[in-house]
Amino acid sequence: MNTSTNAATVQFIGEHLLPGQIGYFLTILSLVASLVATFAFAKAFYAKEMSAENEWKRLANIAFLIESVSVFVCFIILFYVISNHQFEYKYAYMHSDKHMPTEYLLSCFWEGQEGSFLLWSFWHCVLGLLVIARSKHWKNNSYGVMMVLNFTQFCLATMVVGLYFFDFKLGSSPFVMLRTEMNWPILSRPDYLQLIKDGTGLNTLLQNYWMVIHPPILFLGFASTSIPFGFAVAGLLKKKNDWMTTALPWATFSAGILGLGIMMGAAWAYESLTFGGYWAWDPVENASLVPWLTLVAAIHTAIIYRKTGTSLKATYLFFGISFLLVVYSTFLTRSGILGDTSVHAFTDLGMNAQLLAFLVVMVVPYFTLFIVRYKSLTEPAKDDAVDSREFWMLVGSLVLFLSAVVIIAITSIPVFNKIFGTKIAPPEDPAFAHNQVQVFVAIIIGLLTGVGQYLKFKGTPGASFWKSMRLPFVITAIISAVIFVFVGIGFTEKGVGFLAALYLGTVAAVFGVVANAHYWLVVLKGKMKSAGASIGHIGFGLVLVGIFLSSSNKTVLSWNTTGINVLQSNGSVKNPAGNPMENITLFEGIATDMGKYNVTYVRDTVDKLEKKFFELKFAAKGAKNEAAKDSFYLYPDVLKNNKGMEGFSANPASKHYWNKDIFVYVTSFQDHSNEDTIQFKPHNIKIGDSVFYSNGYVKLEKVLVNPNAHRPEGSNELVLQLVVRSKEGLEYQANPAISLQGMNMRMVPDTIKAQNLIVNFNKVVDQQKGLLEIGIKESSALSNLITLKVYEFPFINVLWIGVIVMTMGFALSTYARVKKLK
Amino acid sequence: MKKTHIILLVLIAVAIVVLISYTGDLSSYETVGSAKQKPGKFLNLIVKMDKSVPVEYDPVKDPNFLKFGVQDSLGGKINVVYHNTMPTDMEKSERLVLKGKVQGDVFECSAIVLKCPSKYKDNPNANKNQPVVFTN
To answer: Which of A347, A583, A645 has the CB atom closest to B84's CB atom?
Structure first.
């Protein structure tokens, strides 16, 4: 704010100040309104008399309406600023540019912290309006929910308000001007806007359609966890536990959306990141997965409570921590504390104290309240029967909860280091460290989802249970056998124990799918009305099957067996880099053997956004009929990095089959911007002599005189017949020539692209002795080459289909529960 | 004691065992000096590129061989071998987190995490790059 005096004296040309001023005003207004609404809803919540309650309710609703309108308008203004390229605003300058396709303008919106906080706030307002609209039947609880929601809104509003209290900066406003934030000399010029031609743009990795849709869905998931949390807080405060029925549809909605959002992020990672998969157990991913696990656990314990009156404490705990974990993950990903362990944690915005305060004001009161009320949360003393549905549902919920505890504990290692000053780092194979634990969670959950529906609350008659399970068992056995025979589980790197666990996990997951499908079709007779649970479980089972099949059978097609590099690399087996030979080099125009395919790098093109596409032709080997060959083209691309970074980011491309994906991305390519300055090296040679080059030798076999009958009239040609033999034993022919026409001599060089060689026939040195001179040039700039990785992911579609089915299950369940409330 | 309590206790015990066994897999952040004392042990180094050592990388010869020099905050230097393609922007990166082990006199690296100052913008350092403008 050091240029405020400046601003008073200098008239800046072409600035649009109005949007920012309105934006500033509205962020402050929404801050105040959310505080008023929190207070008013609290008063209504605690009001003893009807008249007082109605008074406070009116005030609260008005405050909330003002807050919502403020947030919505802020949202529109920020989008307006970005889409009109008003680079006088720092946010537009930092996150967008003029060349951006329109659809990515939304991604620009949520690229920055301020925009994503605003997005979160936006969803809270939408949900809050829904709560008010539907609150007729559950008045008192709704006040409690709205009180909690508005307090959360207040905390979020402080994040984007951007006010200074002496030296402390509260929040970071998306409406700050570029010239007040930066100390660039040009920004004090009145005409500075004409000098700023363009913004720094959107991070290239985020220029993907998933990044348009994934953040809003994920944040809707995050925002919606606050509704069940609000119910839990209200229940604890009023010592009333009658809110589960009303809260359940909100919870199933939240879990469905959150799960969908997480998996959209996975789809983005799969399509646009190059770690070769959809899930890397990265802290940022873990932080969003963990609330989902506890939320699903909470849904199940809430159902148990409604049916039997038990699991009350667990329900309060699980709904509570689901929301608190969302807040915790916000702290983890935005404070920069994950710095050394995560590839894509956000960097520090100087708001760590504030983020920590947000976490503390949520966690401490909730747990204090929970502990104070713990004794009053009475459950029936009767023990759950071992053959009852509630018993196994609770076991499943506890397993999900502990799975979440383990994941978040591991993810929190950097926090632990910070607090205790230790220097603990993640293990050598962090993905496996998670997998070896979570595979057992998957086995247990897979089995329980299958069995659960067939058990009855309070106890199940044994005979009928086993009778109804018979068919699912048989079908599971058949499908598993088919999978093992025709697909197999090929992950042997981690030993027999883990492989056995993968087999078990696959069977359990298949069982989960089959048993639930059977339950839905046979027991529920295919009715949609109460199918939510079955369909959700089928989807979850399919997700597990997809994970097991695709991850354990992921194969590398680009094993470097071409002979081009083998000699220089030391034995690949003991290499600490794991699979160092996964990169293969392709020369333009030359087909390279890659297991099932011959792959040719056909050409590259650059589109108007400066994306460089590589055209790769994949031709399946083995088929006799050329035309019938299974061949296809893939176009992985690289995009020049923006934001002051050099280099390129690679975008993978994949060919989708019904049962597998061929996944390819470019790991490096030759940039031919440099002039070729290498000279020909002359060598004297006779017939039968050899001349060495860096990767082999060139041997002169014969000199042919006028071998070409169609040469121009009156010209004479001398053509050398050379054999180039590389160290790897590959052989090439080269035929450089001299052509004489009268007094004009013309040299016709020959190139061997695969060896980066150009051979010239320079002159005849001594005709008597048969001594000739050839020139050899070795140039890395000779041919276009790329290195790439190619993977095959079998049955990855099962995973994506599973996600869709699971989301449908949650949707059905939400719909059915909402309908019941009426 | 209720059966559910027993199950809960068993599961918590399992979780604790899992977490304890996990700590066995954990590695540590080391300096170049202390890493050299522990050859063959998997560990993490936080370093920056040592610009005095030329980067060796030739995708034509071998796309899976990268050699470069690094330096930690205490000034300890070591050469690193990474059997993979060269990460984009590595030379620009302010900080590298290397995972691997010291073998002989080089650090055999299995993974590199880049910390680019500008990667996720909003970082004050990112704004050092002023736009290029022509003033008359």
So the answer is: A583
pLDDT, one tens digit per residue, over A17-66 is 999 999 999 999 999 999 999 999 999 999 988 899 999 999 999 999 99
Q: Are A40 and A109 members of one domain?
A: yes
* Contacts A647 to B, Cβ<8 Å: 88-89, 92
Say whether both A203 and A214 belong to one domain.
no
Task: Pick the residue from chain A with its C-alpha nearest to B25.
Answer: A427
Q: Is residue A261 part of a domain?
A: yes
Q: Is residue A569 less than 8 Å (CB to CB) from chain B?
A: yes
**Residues A228 and A181 placed together within one structural domain of the fold:** no
Question: Within this chain, do residues A635 and A726 fall inside the same structural domain, yes or no?
Answer: no
Mutate to test the interface with A, among B38, B45, B84 (most CBs of A within 10 A): B84
A804 contact partners, CB below 8 Å, separation of at least 6: A539
CB contact set of A206 (below 8 Å; sequence gap of 6+): A104, A107, A111
For tokens 């008192």, name the residue.
A140
In which band, very low, low, confident or very high, does the pLDDT at B123 lie, cut at 50, 70 and 90?
very low
Q: Which residues on chain A are in Cβ contact (under 8 Å) with B127? A: 182
The domain tally of chain A equals 4
Strands (DSSP E) contained in A647-695 are 648-651, 653-656, 660-669, 681-685, 690-693
Residues A355 and A273 placed together within one structural domain of the fold: yes
Q: Which residues of A touch B92 (CB under 8 A)?
A: 645-647
Claim to verify: residue A219 and residue A332 sit in the same structural domain: yes
Q: Which two tokens stand for residue B114?
A: 């880049």
Q: Is the dihedral of CA A331, A332, A334, A337 positive or negative?
A: positive
Domain boundary among A175, A190, A207: A207
Nearest residue in A to B45, CA atom: A425
A12 and A87 assigned to the same domain: yes
HEC string of A6-60 equals HHHHCCCCCCCCHHHHHHHHHHHHHHHHHHHHHHHHHHHHHCCCHHHHHHHHHHH
Shortest Cα distance, chain B CAs vs residue A349, angstroms: 7
pTM of the predicted structure, to 2 decimals: 0.82
Name the residue among A693, A777, A701, A781 with its Cα closest to residue A735. A701
- Does ipTM top 0.95? no
Q: For residue A277, give the DSSP letter.
A: S
Q: Which residue of B has its CA nearest to A410?
A: B19
Chain A residue with Cα closest to B84: A580
Query: Are residue A201 and residue A213 in the same domain, yes or no?
Result: no
Contacts of A95 in chain B (CB under 8 A): 121
User: What's the order of all strands across the beta sheet hosting A757-766?
Assistant: A681-685, A771-778, A757-766, A750-752
Query: A239-243, A293-297, A330-334, A707-711: lowest mean pLDDT where?
Result: A707-711
A402/A408 Cα distance (integer angstroms): 10
- Which range marks the domain in which residue A728 is found? 681-780
Q: Which residues of A touch B65 (CB under 8 A)?
A: 568-569
Would you call A793 exposed, middle or buried from its count of C-beta atoms within 10 A (0-12, 13-18, 19+)? buried
Q: Which of residues 336-355 of A touch B (CB under 8 A)?
A: 339-341, 343-349
CB A269 within 8 A of CB A280: yes
Residue of B nearest to A559 (CA): B64
Furthest-apart CA atoms within chain A: distance in Å:
122
CA A97 to the chain's CA centroid: 23
Q: What is the pLDDT of residue B136?
A: 28
Domains of chain B (ranges plus CATH)?
28-124 (2.40.50.140)
